[in-house]
Each structure stands twice: as structure tokens, then as C-alpha cells.
User: What shape does this take?
Amino acid sequence: MKNFNKILLLITVVVFVATVFTQCASQQKATSSTDNASKGTPEYVLQKSGAQLWAESCIRCHNTASPATFSDVQWDVAMKHMEIRAQLTKVEAEKVLEFMQSAN
Amino acid sequence: MIYKYFLGSALMILVLVKSNAQNQSNTLDPKPGNSRFLLRGYSDATFMSNDEETTFGNARFVPLFLYKQSDKLFFEGELEFEVEDGEVHVALEYANFNYSLAPNLNLRAGKILIPFGIFFDRLHPSWINRLPTVPLGYGHDGILPTSDLGAELRGASYLGGMKFNYSLYVVNGPRIEDGEEEAEEVGMIVHEPDEDNNNNKAVGGRLGVFPLKDQSLEIGFSAQLAKLGNRDSELEDVGAFMYAFDWTYVRKVSFLGGVIDLKGQINFINIDDQTYTVEEDSLMESYTFDNKSNSSFFQLGYRPTFGSSGFVKNLELVGRYSTLNTPEEAPWESESTQLALGLNYWIDWRTAIKFAYQMDSITGGHGEGGEEPEELDVNTFYIQWTLGF
Assistant: This one.
């Protein structure tokens, strides 16, 4: 029971701090979510195109999907799913989404 | 005791307030056809043949529901309908909501796939898994976690110019077989996601790094710590420490004329020392053994994508070697190896027909009266049709 309390407390503190941090970060003068997410992203990643990231990322688990597979709105949902599931960074997910929507 | 409820409530209010603010600033276009609900999933049917049986073994329909309420809030849920041995089994594979706390930090809660290694978290759907079967260590009497109820922080970022991804989770966790119902399985770790047997929670995580800039190589380490025993039982304080190493290397190789896909995972399950006393045939019997198990898989795939023939480009060769070793002197002691060789034909990027020949070699269990452990070799031919949608 003591361990349970410790774990719950630890998780709560971590999430609480992360949430507060997010609140504070959102008050900064970021012009867009992409600008905000780009902070700390290496230059070589920023220089990659969406098509390149699409080719690099998808194939690590499954065959690459054709952009024609889904509509723009469907890609928006599917890429959010992949951002979480495949652990893409926000910058990667947005670049790949932009490519899929522009190429379908 | 009260403080945890207070902290939990404060956390929930914070998340809800932020979620509400986000929804107001990111209202979705409600036009018909613009619903952010997406139905995906997969289906498969498997034929198998060996010395024991020749049968259309099972068929599955696995719908995946995705709903994006906003850039912050997301839901995913997957059901599994499976026909096997004349019965339809229904299971909730996972169902969780995700809240994006920051661009590269996600909190999800509900029933989640456990990111212990890579196989179940990423590769288990049949349209992704290159073979009709799963590696040793999963499935019936599996020693590895698959999904559970709990919460997880996950995401990806960069450190020193190198990409990494991370997961940190707390879930109900596994239990230990106490031998009351299955005396021959006493001491075995059991992953039953729908049942929580104690107040202790399993805590674990995974860290993956990408040493190469083209992301072709990923190396991961996972660990999980949990107490296994039922509450108020003799085994209550028996703990388990599990850890795993995994790797993925996928790259187009010009001189090989295609894509090579190298994946693998090595798992170790260490359970605290304990003497187990069980009743067998009205007699009390004690077992003491070093309760350590391990399993692994090594997989290599090759797809000749550079070929000029459309037919050849759609082919894929796969080989997987897998092992499972359970504790010596345990009633469920076993040593298993499995070699699976497969040939896949991809009709499109998510539809395939898989042919595989799998050779299982199992040495396990103590025979009565000091007999030698049974040895069993089973060779099975599989055909699986799978379709992701």
C-alpha cells in the first residue's frame, strides 16, 4: 500500500508539473504550434521533407501507405493516431501530414 | 489517504480546464463528411496443417475506432472478434483516451498496449506482423505483457541531435499463479489485463534511441517492476522485475535490390525467490526454484522492391527464430525453440497472403516418477490471408 501511494504520488506530481509547464509554455509568444514544436528540433530534421520522413518512418513497422488511401480529413485523424502510436515527434507528424494531404 | 484523492482531483480539473480551452480554440468543422471519426482495423483467416490436424484454424475481425476531438484530445479503441474451435471470442484489445500535454508529451489512460519491447506495442496486427504466428512468449501461457488498464506518458524528442522516444506507464500489473487451481503452474506469472488482484501497481517504461539520422536503426530498453501476489495472501510481497532489449533496422539496400527488415527482442522475467506449497492428489508438495524465465525473437525480412517485375516486387521473404525458457525445477519447466520461414505476397500495402512453415521444438514438464522431460517436435504449415483497412 505504501508503494502504491508512492507511485500514485509520483505520477500525479509528474503530470501536474508537466501540465503546469504546458500552461506556462502556451503563454509564450509562439506564432503557431509548429513554431513551438520546432524548438529543440535538430536542423537536419527540419530540412527533411514530409515525403522523406514518410518514407523513413512508416516503413519501420509496416509498408508505406499511398497518400491516396485517405481523404485530407481522414489523414488528419490517422496521423494523430500514428504520432501517438509510432511515437513521431510533433514536427515529423505535421510534415508527413502536410505531404499526405498535398499528394492525395 | 485523503491527499491522493485531492491530488488526483486537482490533476483532473487541470486537464479538463485545459482541454475545454483547447476545444474552444480548435473547434472542428461540423460539415458532413468532416467528422474526425475513423474506422480502421484488420481481418485475417488462417489455414494450418501438421501431423495432428489440418484445419482452417481461426478467423478474426478486429475493428479499430479512432476519434480526434481536437489536436489535444484523441481516442483509440480496438475490439477483437475471433472464431476459434467453434466459438466466437470477443475481447477489448485496448481503449484509451490521449491528451497531448505538450507537443512531444502525451498522456493516455484506459486500457493500453504495454510498451514492453516492440512486438505487441507495434507489430502484433496481422497486416503488420510478417508471419502468421507470434513469437514464443506471447499467446496462451505467455510470459510477456500485452495490454492492461492504467496510464502512460509517451512521446518522442531529441537529445544532442539524436532522436529518442519514451514511455512511462503505471498499470494494474500481472499476478502470480498460486497453485490453488492449477498446481502444475504454481509460480508462473500471469498477465490478465481485466483482473486486478492487489493494490500494488506495475510501473514500467521503455526508452528507444535512433543513432542514425535516417531513423533506420532503433535500439530500445524496457523494464517493469511489480508485486504479483493476491492481496492478504502468502505471496503478496512476491515481486517481479522484467526487462527487455529490442532493435529495429529497416533500410533500402541498393546492392541487395530491396528492403531489409531486421527486428528482434530479448526478454528476461525475474521473480523473487519463494517456496510454493500446493496440494496435489491430497498431498501437500513444496516447490523451490530459481524463478527466472527468458524469451527472444530474431527476425529478418527481405523484399525485392527494386525489381522490374511487379510480381517479384510484391514478394517478401521472412525468417524468424524464437526461444522460450522457463525455470528449471519448476512444474512448468520448458525449453522451446521455434523457427518460422515465410513467403508473403503483398496485394497492396496492407493486404497480403502469407505462406509459412514453422518448426517448433519443445522440451518441457517433468514426467511422473522421475521420467525424462517430454520432447515434442511439431512442424506446421500455415496460409494466412490478412487485410488491413
